[in-house]
């Protein structure tokens, strides 16, 4: 058994290239808000994140969301949402029963409200530090609570982590999302609390969905540090460094694995 991974994007954000990778020019660049459709043999269409959604654009017109829009301007059109794109691909939103959430930044959960039948799978450690935050304190963490469905917490299934085998070294914890070995989550916290990467077992081999553990596929494989200014945005900069190093070591030990990061063109795709 295997899954099929289809990388998509729901909108993009503008950022300075020099911020995302030290030594790059001080030029504004558009970065895709990537998410992934995963075709699972028994669970149907599964999402890993959702990218932006219409709610993000609306929230950015109001205080305090307007702060988010000033720091990270968003490009998002009427047909860009995960919901619309899945509909075009032949998957009505009601058919999506599972969304695996890498972390709770607005550009990853902006479409959660569009999937009313979905259970959300995430690391409890992603939710606990943010759940009580509102207003400016939330936006400062790139968290917009109004994007989450009202029954968000009731629909959450916390990932159940256990000790990882040697094959996942240097990762020490793993959560097998559906218990079939096809989608395994490993912790890569630091950029945001409780962030996870997802190891997807495809026909051709392993695909690592690394979320925001690196800004580019190149940076996921090689040590390309962000600008020091970008580090202030990390929830835990030291932890972010350790997670990046663990990801690089894992990819080095598994050279055949493909890596997709949220804000770059996925490896192996045009
Ligand atoms: Zn993020």
UniProtKB/TrEMBL annotation:
Domain Metallo-beta-lactamase: 32-263
Keyword Zinc: yes
Listed cofactors: Zn(2+)
Cited InterPro entries: MBL_superfamily_lactonases (IPR051013), Metallo-B-lactamas (IPR001279), RibonucZ/Hydroxyglut_hydro (IPR036866)
Cited SUPFAM superfamilies: Metallo-hydrolase/oxidoreductase
Keyword set, alphabetical order: Hydrolase, Metal-binding, Zinc
Keyword Hydrolase: yes
Pfam family name, one: Lactamase_B
Protein family (similarity comment): Belongs to the metallo-beta-lactamase superfamily.
Protein name: MBL fold metallo-hydrolase
UniProt organism field: Deinococcus aquaticus
Lineage: Bacteria, Thermotogati, Deinococcota, Deinococci, Deinococcales
């Amino acid at each position: 058994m295997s899954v099929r991974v289809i990388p998509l994007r729901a909108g993009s954000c503008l950022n300075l290239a020099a911020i995302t990778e030290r030594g790059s020019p001080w030029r504004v660049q558009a970065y895709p808000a990537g998410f992934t459709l995963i075709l699972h043999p028994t669970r149907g269409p599964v999402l890993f994140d959702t990218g932006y959604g219409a709610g993000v654009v609306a929230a950015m017109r109001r205080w305090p969301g307007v702060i988010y829009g000033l720091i990270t301007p968003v490009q998002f059109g009427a047909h860009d949402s995960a919901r619309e794109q899945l509909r075009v691909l032949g998957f009505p939103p009601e058919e999506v029963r599972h969304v695996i959430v890498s972390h709770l930044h607005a550009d990853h959960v902006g479409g959660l409200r569009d999937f009313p039948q979905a259970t959300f799978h995430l690391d409890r450690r992603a939710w606990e530090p943010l759940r009580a935050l509102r207003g400016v304190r939330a936006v400062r963490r790139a968290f917009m609570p109004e994007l989450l469905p009202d029954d968000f917490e009731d629909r959450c299934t916390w990932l159940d982590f256990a000790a990882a085998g040697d094959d996942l070294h240097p990762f020490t914890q793993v959560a097998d999302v559906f218990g079939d070995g096809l989608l395994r989550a490993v912790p890569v916290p630091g950029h945001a609390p409780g962030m996870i990467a997802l190891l997807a077992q495809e026909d051709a081999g392993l695909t690592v969905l690394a979320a925001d553990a690196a800004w580019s596929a190149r940076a996921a494989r090689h040590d390309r540090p962000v600008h020091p200014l970008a580090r202030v945005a990390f929830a835990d900069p030291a932890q972010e460094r350790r997670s990046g190093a663990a990801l690089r070591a894992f990819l080095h030990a598994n050279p055949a694995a493909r890596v997709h990061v949220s804000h770059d063109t996925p490896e192996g795709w045009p």
